[in-house]
Design goal:
globular; Four Helix Bundle (Hemerythrin (Met), subunit A)
Length: 191
């Protein structure tokens, strides 16, 4: 049901996207800090909605559909707005492309396999990938401007975010390959 708390939390993640984009577009250190905090709150709702759904036995097809969509929209919008405002670190566009392409690949595989009544379950490594990816994006949204705003001039937030983004892209490649191999195995078998 749409009004179940897990679904409301998932929808709040989608609703946060235009606010996050506007905060980054301000090009102000306090906007970067607020964007990072909003992104972190959205990331927490990703963890919380699943936990609450399990605790309350509020599983729904709507929630199962919306949760990965909300994640992909949040990640995609964050990467795009940072790329558009030149906020990705040097060479940061390449891991961003890898991340977006993997999300499209897995979504396409899942859609195709759903038509064959085959599910592509989320793996433990994919959950780690999502967590690491969210952490990297949160750090990149904060950026060096937030470190300066907080008086942490010595903290290389941008460099830390760049390393995290490349590691997230590496996990993205590994999990994307796993999903592709699994998906192709089902596609290769006759219906």
């Amino acid at each position: 049901m749409l009004t179940d708390l897990p679904n409301v939390l998932t929808l709040s993640r989608i609703a946060a996207i235009p606010v996050l984009v506007a905060l980054v577009a301000l090009l102000r250190p306090w906007g970067d800090l607020c964007a990072c905090l909003l992104f972190a709150a959205a990331g927490i709702t990703d963890w919380l909605d699943g936990r609450l759904a399990r605790q309350r036995h509020q599983f729904s097809e709507l929630g199962r559909m919306l949760d990965p969509i909300a994640d992909k929209l949040l990640v995609g919008a964050s990467l795009m707005v940072m790329a558009g405002f030149h906020r990705l670190p040097l060479w940061g566009l390449y891991p961003a492309i890898v991340i977006l392409l993997r999300e499209i690949l897995v979504s396409g595989l899942r859609e195709h396999l759903a038509g064959r009544r085959v599910s592509l379950p989320v793996t433990r490594l994919a959950k780690w990938k999502t967590g690491f990816q969210m952490g990297a994006l949160g750090v990149l949204l904060a950026g060096d401007s937030t470190a300066r705003l907080l008086g942490l001039h010595w903290l290389p937030v941008g460099a830390i975010g760049a390393v995290m983004l490349w590691l997230a892209a590496l996990l993205t490649l590994v999990t994307g390959w796993d999903y592709l191999v699994t998906g192709l195995r089902h596609v290769a078998t006759p219906e």
